[in-house]
Prior knowledge:
Blueprint: H1 8-11, H2 22-35, H3 48-55, H4 59-71, E1 75-78, E2 82-85, H5 122-125, E3 147-148, H6 161-171, H7 174-180, H8 190-200, E4 213-216, H9 219-231, E5 240-245, H10 249-258, E6 261-268, E7 271-272, E8 283-286, H11 300-312, E9 316-320, H12 336-339, E10 345-350, E11 362-365, H13 368-381, H14 387-398, H15 401-428, E12 441-445, H16 452-461, E13 464-465, E14 467-468, E15 482-486, H17 492-513
Parallel strand pairs: 3-13, 5-6, 5-8, 8-9, 9-10
Antiparallel strand pairs: 1-2, 4-11, 6-7, 10-11, 12-15, 14-15
Helix pairs in contact: 2-4, 3-4, 6-14, 8-14, 9-10, 15-17
Amino acid sequence: MxxxxxxxxxxxxxxxxxxxxxxxxxxxxxxxxILDGQIPIETPLPSSRELARQLGVARNxxxxxxxxxxxxxxxxxxxRKGYYVNPEILTGRVRTAADNRSGRDDAANQTHQVDAKNxxxxxxxxxxxxxxxxxxxxxxxxxxxxxxxxxGQVDPSLFPVNDWRESCRLSxxxxxxxxxxxxxxxxDDDLLVEQILNRxxxxxxxxASPDQILITTGAQNGLYLAAQxxxxxxxxxxxxVGVEDPCYxxxxxxxxxxxxxxxxxxxxxxxxxxxNRLRSCDLLYVTPSHQCPTTSTLPLERxxxxxxxxxxxxxxxxxDDYESELNFVGEPTPALKSLDRNNRVIxxxxxxxxxxxxxxxxxxxxxxxxxxxxxxxxxxxxRHPPTxxxxxxxxxxxxxxxxxVILKLSQVFKERWRVMDQALSSHLxxxxxxxxxxxxxxxxxxxxxxxxxELEARAAEQSIVINAGDNYFADxxxxxxxxxxxxxSIATDxxxxxxxxxxxxxxxxxxxxxx
Length: 515
């Protein structure tokens, strides 16, 4: 028992449902207690036998935890006296008032009190009004919903755990560690670059050299780099950007940081519909393979026409090859970049939809001159993406795991795509069109007067996640009756009953609007 009467088992909380082992939980609890000053330096820890008895765990669990912390200099083993906190582990830390009290306050209670009258006026100091941007929102706890029709997330049951572990082990070999722990300055991992050039891009008909590729922290980072380089004019007229309408909202918000001149081109059943306003554009942003969010695909002949217009009207094309790997309907259409003979296309891709969005691995492919500038800009922002992650993904690609997971996802998603198409036709009977390219979502139109945002809120109350489409449109007063249904994260057998429940809500809303 401690001098303050607190039992050790009350200090160390172990949970049988934790993803960590009991030994890891105990080590973590000990480290926290030591660094928070909860264990006085001259107070001996209980013996391994006594602590094991109090915690209800095997003695060996405590022995191994103690030994690990001795090796890492947290504890000292004094002969015939027991285990003590090593005072050296606490050196180099700024002493606070909390250190002089018995025990340490929670971190939340140790923050400095701010004198409000002397605090800066941040609303005037920060010129960007980012909070006014219209963003797409998803519930963070979507996994707890019964019917998560959320897009852009992965189904944990489909993640290639063993393949990923193998790739991680390879990147943790001594030789590999010596390579990726070095400061790479502005360079990328050679293995990952090689694999993207030889394994990933050729699937889209794109062939490039190492000086034409830059690794980014996801596709979104690549879009931001391109926007800052091509739209942020320091002199002369403001650059004009063309976007699809509806459009990926974050891309539109990024462009707005660098220019207030934007042309919105409508999207039809065959992708973006461009007109003579292209002549005023300096940059056109498109998602031709699988338009976000409508899922339409730009046909080959219109891709060639767009490339001809880029030369004729002298503008650049920012191609976001969104969900291009998930093609399980018909023949794949080559990327715009693969047809580009004039270096007009800046190609942005990622591994988010096939591997995991949390890895944040993307890539930009463009002319060597632009990549050189993008690399210099990236260096000022964060130098390069984490090289240990780059190396692990490089191994994952080299071992053929990525091609294997694409095949598996395509087979599973094709079945979910079929089930969702049938369920929508049977229950909702709205203006949904099955994506002709594949992908992982449907774009659904509701009857006029039925609000998608209200449907989203009512659906959430019945444990259904959908995504209202209001913020995809350029006009704040644009259509309010479209929503997005994802099927990448919902089990196949949950799709039909989820759509049925959703249809019931829609019918109730229709009845209310037409009493």
